[in-house]
Amino acid sequence: MATQQAQLVLAPIRGITDCHFRSLFHTYFPGFDSALAPFINPQRYSSFNPKQLKDVLPETNKRLPITPQLLYTNVEDFLFLAHRLQELGYKEVNWNLGCPAPMVTIKRRGSGLLPFPEQIISFLDQVVPKLSMKLSIKTRLGFEKKDELFSLLPRLDAYPLTEIIIHGRLGKQLYKGKSDTETFGQCLTRSKHPIVYNGDINSVEKFRALQKQFPEITKWMIGRGALSNPFLAGEIKGMQCCNKNEKLEAFHRELYDCYKELLSGPSHLLGRLKQLWAYLGVFFPPQQKCWKKIKKCRTEEQYQKVVGDLFKSLETT
Questions:
Q1: Are residues 135 and 266 in the same domain?
Q2: How many domains does the chain have?
Q3: Does the pLDDT value for residue 3 go beyond 50?
């Protein structure tokens, strides 16, 4: 079956899909072939600050293969860190031209650089000849308008990119509205590079419809859909899963214990877990109003009581 041959990549979601989450997620919910790590912030002297690289250290990423992602727009800094990552054993890096966060785009980084194609081309002209690693790009349809990517894609044919991951929204949309599959389809005719689809894959039915619409696509990136339904990648691959509720509860328990040990204090712990529940709450019956209940928690005791009740509610549905 075609669905069994599809390559699935876990999307980078900053604040959630760190190395600890990725490892546990892959253990409990198989189906993804690899992951793109959340971008590394610009930091020239990363080799002297282990904290900057802790999320991509090989010893913390043994379960699921990853590709590190860089947000840099400074050539020297990009090459410096790429070389450091190569020393760690990585053979490919991804350049982030897709982040829609205002604090990023206002600095002409992420999707905020898309209205300035000459800067993108100049960057690649300087980086590619000196980069002894493979390079891919993650981007959006544009920042303000879709013709930003339309005009850029043919120019990217001049560079030996391994692939271009395209999220079907504009940067200014953030994650609002629907992924624009029509415009994504038009992008396929404007590039010679392998294209990876990203955007609104939230069910097996939606995936199959997209696969039928874009039969030439063999690699798919899933982010929020997998956080809302952790079993989605496995379901797409045709994997059978028993005891879903027990697996989900065990995953949460191990993730909670992991972050309790790593993070400093209840506020950091609950803050991290609440980011996940903003998506995971969709997995539970609507009447449970998971996100509203968890959002109100101020102590670990409150949180454990609410979450315990939520998992009990799954047993009766």
A1: no
A2: 2
A3: no
